[in-house]
Write a structure and sequence with these properties.
Length: 308
């Protein structure tokens, strides 16, 4: 099959591999992007599977908190110009506040009342669309709560308080000193934003992700020509390294790289039990692919002519 330049570019953007290597990978895999990523990684031509989702949508991540609970929402707009608009920022803040009174599902948030208004979130979004003239959507939301301790938050690339491009909420269950736990939680939330772990603990990593990594490591090891018994040991060693890179408690703590996150949390407890219950991280537009338009074709169509 013919491989398009757009396919090559997409694969190159996701893997950092060379153009000819990307074309070869796509040719070998019949144009399937995910299979081509695995092919490149098997050949040692692409980075490990912590690739960021394609960030194409504009808008803002909004966070709101109350003692023991935090919610996070992503509201998308078509352009960054709207995201920098004070009215849009107030809208996202209001939606996050409204979400605090819900179970965190999109349906419940859409039906919730905006702060100080009789309008629902859904109605407020529709009113904003009509006023600004640009499509907006409440794309996703998350809620984290703890019975004892804190739910810490961090917003990166913030444009206003609790509004930005990356948001993290993390539950820290503990009977320890509230202010110390809150300070630790903030550091852990910042670490998550920087390091992008996949799970709190090793056993919580998606089995499908582990199986995919195992298969890639095995294929890489077989290409070395080693016996199967040696290959299995090589695979297990690489999996241990993989877990160190993607499991929160095993990652080197960005605040003190001499310790893992787990070691830093244990030390901070000073005898008190501290448990990271869960975390959620949103990167604006992650996994959303914006349609690319051909400006020349649009001009030609508007003029009633065909593009050569």
């Amino acid at each position: 099959m013919a491989i398009s330049a757009a396919q090559v570019k997409e694969l190159r953007d996701q893997t950092g591999a060379g153009m000819m290597d990307c074309k070869a990978a796509l040719t070998e895999t019949g144009g399937d992007i995910e299979s081509a990523i695995d092919w490149l990684r098997t050949k040692g031509l692409a980075k490990a599977a912590k690739k960021a989702g394609r960030v194409a949508a504009e808008g803002l991540i909004g966070v709101a908190t109350t003692p023991g609970t935090a919610v996070m929402v992503e509201v998308n707009s078509e352009t960054d110009f709207v995201a920098r608009n004070a009215d849009f920022q107030a809208l996202v803040s209001g939606i996050a506040e409204a979400a605090l009174a819900t179970d965190g599902t999109i349906e419940a948030i859409a039906a919730a009342k905006m702060p100080g208004s009789n309008d629902t979130v859904d109605a407020a979004l529709k009113n904003a669309i009509a006023k600004i003239g640009e499509n907006m959507t409440l794309r996703r939301a998350a809620r984290v709560e703890v019975s004892l301790g804190v739910v810490a938050t961090y917003v990166h690339n913030s444009v206003a308080p609790n509004l930005g491009k990356i948001g993290v909420i993390v539950g820290i269950q503990s009977t320890g000193h509230a202010e110390k736990i809150a300070a630790l939680g903030k550091q852990v939330a910042m670490h998550i934003a920087a390091a992008g772990p996949l799970a709190v603990r090793q056993e919580e990593v998606d089995p499908a992700v582990v199986a995919r990594e195992r298969a890639i490591f095995a294929e890489q090891a077989r290409e070395s020509g080693k016996p199967e018994a040696i290959i299995e040991k090589m695979v297990e060693g690489r999996l241990r390294k993989f877990y160190e890179e993607v499991v929160l408690m095993s990652q080197a703590f960005v605040v003190d790289t001499d310790k893992t996150v787990g070691e830093a949390i244990k030390a901070a407890g000073n005898g008190a039990e501290i448990d990271v219950t869960e975390f959620v991280m949103f990167r604006l537009g992650e996994g959303v692919e914006k349609e690319e338009t051909d400006f020349a074709a649009e001009v030609a169509a508007a003029a009633g002519t065909d593009k050569d």
